[in-house]
Write a structure and sequence with these properties.
single chain, 600 residues, three-stranded antiparallel sheet
């Protein structure tokens, strides 16, 4: 009996425990997983939904197999690992599971609505790719055939690195910036018989801009050179030889493509020849009778008025044994008739005193006298009756001009105001001719600084300009150099102490006693002489070299230079190639040349 009771009690207890198991949550609790309708299991087992972590009891591999892919399912998608093929596109955040488990969705409606196909944009697309119309990653784009704007004009959309029989137009094709419409709309060029092509290709005619579709380098190769052809010319690049002359504005193409025309009739009609005016002309040049540039002029022999009186037409800076007469020669204002057959008495007063009538800007070995010659006010009599002044090393000039020495009367030909300027150095140096400042028409200095003498430094320069070989050209150079130093550099006077010409003469600059502006750092302690010319590749002549040596000796004799002076080239004390390689190599052989630069 007791055994039966124990058996009944045990059975009742088992039933009660079983009921409690069904009512109470299990220990270790998979409730979070169960609450969302999932099942806890090892995650290497198949799961119809997806595995979620942290919702199951057990080890790290025991996870909740849950079907909560509702967001993805609601849009008709399927949650799966995104390394699997997806007929639509993957969307993120709509599936349970890891970051790689995404919703494969077919929501490519925007692309489908325009007849496109969503695909990775590294795949071939018969139309063009549009962005923002497909689900999926940034590289998944809509391959669309919406190239209507291009198609409507008969073009074809393609990558613009492909050959195009017409030209590329931008903005007519869907796709990337490089996908453009290859269009044949080159009608403006075709209408004038031209061909559209890249302008780096050869063109038998000329290139015209704005008549072709495509980039800025795609231009119309046109043969429309009619204006040039109508006058019998030929359009070509103006660096090519032209038997006639070049005319501008008659040819299509660039600014350098001009019309080579033989239309020099005005010149030809007077028996002339059109040519560049830097070429020799047996007659004279006349402007305005030739086609071509301003330098292409008519070489004409039409000097008959001069020839009729036995004269010769030439530039009036050339020597004339008679006198120059204006308006009898063709050519420029400086081309005049040198005639020995002037109407009686015109130059007689000058000729009677043994003078020569000429323009007073020409060199005169004597002096100019006014009122004795026919012609303009600048045509005066060059008379040699200045010997008394010249004999004492002076210069005859109007006494209202500056004279660095003093004026003496009765030694010059001319009026009472024409007197002899005898400079302080004129004749001082018996071994070399020294022309005073007045001789070359120097401007007065704006200020002067006195230098203590004697000095022990002597610097040699070259001017790097034109050389000169006579008084006229050397004095012109002196004036030019002084103008440059004063007007351009802002100095108070010409910079050098003395200058030398290849006529063998010395021309006074600032002189012995005044501080120069020739050798920076040494101007107050040395004298500077410059030979006029550029002596980088040639030596000055012996006349100029001897003039420097004699000038230095003159300075020693008169106490302006020490007997033990040091000679330098400008380059020895400055960053310069002065006085030129050839002159520098010469002076380094002179006895007083010092290889050691002086201290500042």
């Amino acid at each position: 009996m007791i055994c039966l009771v124990n058996m009944l009690y045990s059975a009742t207890l088992i039933v009660l425990i079983s009921m409690l198991v069904l009512i109470l949550p299990a220990s270790g609790s998979d409730t979070p997983c169960l609450s969302i309708g999932g099942t806890c299991q090892e995650d290497n087992l198949s799961c119809s939904g997806s595995y979620l972590t942290g919702l199951c009891s057990g080890g790290v591999n025991r996870r909740c197999c849950s079907g909560t892919d509702t967001p993805c399912l609601k849009i008709g998608g399927t949650c799966q690992d995104d390394n699997l093929s997806c007929s639509g596109s993957y969307l993120t955040g709509l599936c349970s599971g890891g970051v790689n488990r995404r919703c494969c969705s077919g929501t490519d409606t925007p692309c489908l609505k325009i007849g496109g196909t969503c695909q990775d944009d590294n795949l071939s697309c018969s139309g063009s790719y549009l962005t923002g119309l497909c689900s999926g990653g940034v590289n998944r784009r809509c391959c669309s055939g919406t190239d209507a704007p291009c198609l409507n004009i008969g073009g074809t959309c393609q990558d613009d690195n492909l050959s195009c029989s017409g030209s590329y137009l931008t903005g007519f094709c869907s796709g990337g910036v490089n996908r453009r419409c290859c269009s044949g709309t080159d009608a403006p060029c075709l209408n004038i018989g031209g061909t559209c092509q890249d302008d780096n290709l050869s063109c038998s005619g000329s290139y015209l801009t704005g008549l072709c579709s495509g980039g800025v380098n795609r231009r119309c190769c046109s043969g429309s050179d009619a204006p040039c052809l109508n006058i019998g010319g030929t359009c070509q690049d103006d660096n090519l030889s032209c038997s006639g002359s070049y005319l501008t504005g008659l040819c299509s193409g660039g600014v350098n493509r001009r019309c080579c025309s033989g239309n020099d009739a005005p010149c030809l009609n007077i028996g002339g020849t059109c040519q560049d005016d830097d070429q020799c002309c047996s007659g004279s040049y006349i402007s305005g009778l030739c086609s071509g540039g301003a330098d292409r002029r008519c070489c004409s022999g039409n000097d008959a008025p001069c020839l009729d009186i036995g004269g010769t037409c030439q530039d009036d800076d050339q020597y004339c044994s008679g006198s120059y007469v204006s308006w009898l020669c063709s050519g420029g204002a400086n081309r005049r008739c040198c005639s020995g057959c002037i109407p009686t008495g015109s130059d007689a007063p000058c000729l009677h005193i043994g003078g020569t009538c000429q323009d007073d800007n020409l060199y005169c070995s004597g002096s100019y006298v006014s009122g004795l010659c026919s012609g303009g006010v600048n045509r005066r009599c060059c008379s040699g009756n200045d010997a008394p002044c010249l004999n004492i090393g002076g210069t005859c000039q109007d006494d209202n001009l500056y004279c660095s020495g003093s004026y003496e009367s009765g030694l010059c030909s001319g009026g009472a105001n024409r007197r002899c300027c005898s400079g302080p150095y004129s004749g001082m140096c018996s071994n070399v001719k020294v022309y005073s400042r007045a001789s070359w028409g120097a401007q007065s200095p704006t200020q002067v600084s006195t230098m203590n003498t004697p000095v022990g430094l002597f610097f040699v320069h070259h001017t790097e300009g034109h050389a000169c070989h006579d008084f006229t050209s050397c004095t012109a150079q002196m004036r030019n150099i002084q103008n440059y130093h004063m007007a351009t550099r802002g100095w108070s006077d010409i910079g050098y102490s003395f200058l030398v010409g290849e006529d063998g003469a010395v021309y006074e600059g600032r002189g012995w006693n005044h501080v120069g502006a020739h050798t920076q750092g040494y101007n107050s302690r040395g004298l500077g002489v410059a030979i006029m010319g550029d002596f980088m590749h040639r030596k000055p002549n012996n006349a100029a070299l001897n003039a420097i040596k004699n000038l230095i000796q003159c300075g020693i004799n008169h106490g302006y230079v020490t007997s033990g002076y040091s000679l330098y080239g400008h380059r020895d004390v400055g960053t310069s190639d002065c006085p030129g390689d050839a002159l520098y190599n010469e002076i380094t052989t002179w006895s007083h040349y010092n290889t050691q630069a002086p201290q500042k």
